[in-house]
Amino acid sequence: MNAELIFKYFPDLTEEQRSQFVDLEALYQDWNQKINVVSRKDIDELYLRHVLHSLGIAKIQQFQAGSAVLDVGTGGGFPGIPLAILFPETHFTLVDSIGKKIKVVEEVVEGLGLTNVTPVNSRVEEIKDKFDFIVSRAVAAMPTFTFWIKGKIKKDSVHERRNGILYLKGGDLSEELKDYRTAQVFDLQDYFEEDFFETKKVVYLPLKFKG
């Protein structure tokens, strides 16, 4: 699969965005040989398993110009880098505690010419800034995750949807989310037809998520 998969679901991209999505693959192929951040199977299906999956968040939430998004446990740059291409006027901070992963993020960001991304090699607890939304791909169970990011979400919203967490998860989430009455779960198979998305979801948790 190539970048055409992205263009199928996001047809209104600028030429620059289309070019960046195309260039993504060669950059990851190159860096993955030096620093293995994506499995062999996944690198062969990069656009499906990583890029389009990351952009599932964009089917749920469009980020406004000038807003700030934190990607926690970004790994090789997902979901942050695909979202940063899609929303060039939104600022993304990509944090991971593993230095070699952030090295790959830095190189891919530079290779794509992205000016709206700040890669940070740190634990999320050490990040002092506040953000409109916090995104992630299943780095921990929700109670652990909400503990990590406590106090890092801005109170004032510039989007129609209240500030909060947008979390890519898979499988049955009923047990994990039973204490979060305000959580909303969106099935990605409603937006993407590929079999990969059958069990994949986006969980939205607004700022006031207890109660």
Concise summary:
The chain is an alpha/beta fold and 211 residues long. The protein has 7 helices and 7 strands, in the order ααααβαβαββαβββ.
List keywords for this structure.
7 helices, alpha/beta, 211 residues, 7-stranded mixed sheet, 7 strands, 35% helix
Number of strands: 7
Low-confidence stretches: none
Distance between the termini: 43 Å
Element pattern in H and E: HHHHEHEHEEHEEE
Helix share bin: 25-40%
- The overall average pLDDT, rounded, is 93
Rg is 16 Å
Could you describe the largest sheet, including whether it forms a barrel? 7 strands, mixed
Protein structure class: alpha/beta
Q: How many distinct helices?
A: 7
Shape: globular
- Percentage of β-strand residues: 15-25%
Strand order of the largest sheet: 3-2-1-4-5-7-6
Description:
The model has no long low-confidence stretch (mean pLDDT 93). 38% of the residues are buried. This protein has helices at 4-9, 15-34, 40-44, 46-60, 80-86, 99-112, 142-148, and strands at 68-72, 91-96, 117-121, 133-137, 164-170, 184-187, 200-206. The protein is α/β, with parallel strands linked by helices and 211 residues long. It is built from seven helices and seven strands, in the order H-H-H-H-E-H-E-H-E-E-H-E-E-E. A seven-stranded mixed β-sheet has the order 3-2-1-4-5-7-6, with helices on one face. The chain is 35% helix and 18% strand. The longest helix has 20 residues, at 15-34.
